[in-house]
Amino acid sequence: MEPTKELLSVRLASLVPSRFNVRRHSVGQVEELAALIEAQADRIARAG
After folding, report:
1. pLDDT, tens digit (0-9, with 9 covering 90-100), for 2-35
2. Is residue 28 part of a domain?
3. Dihedral sign (CA 13, 37, 28, 23)
4. What is the Cα Rg of the chain in Å?
5. Within a domain: residue 47?
6. Does the residue 18 lie in any domain?
7. Which of 8, 17, 32, 33 would you label with 25, given CA atoms 20 to 30 Å apart?
8. Alpha-helix residue ranges (DSSP H) falling in the chain
9. Is 41 a domain residue?
10. pTM for the whole thing?
11. Can you give the pLDDT at residue 25?
12. 3-state DSSP call for residue 13?
């Protein structure tokens, strides 16, 4: 699979949990992931 810069918008309601896309993380990992997502959202908001 080649990396791409294409962005896809997916309705949150269309996402469903499955054993293939659910991972187990410790609390620290989840907090770190949340911070990364928030930082990325801030960058996108400033650029848009």
Report:
1. 777 788 788 888 887 777 766 666 667 778 888 8
2. yes
3. positive
4. 14
5. yes
6. no
7. 8
8. 27-47
9. yes
10. 0.42
11. 62
12. helix
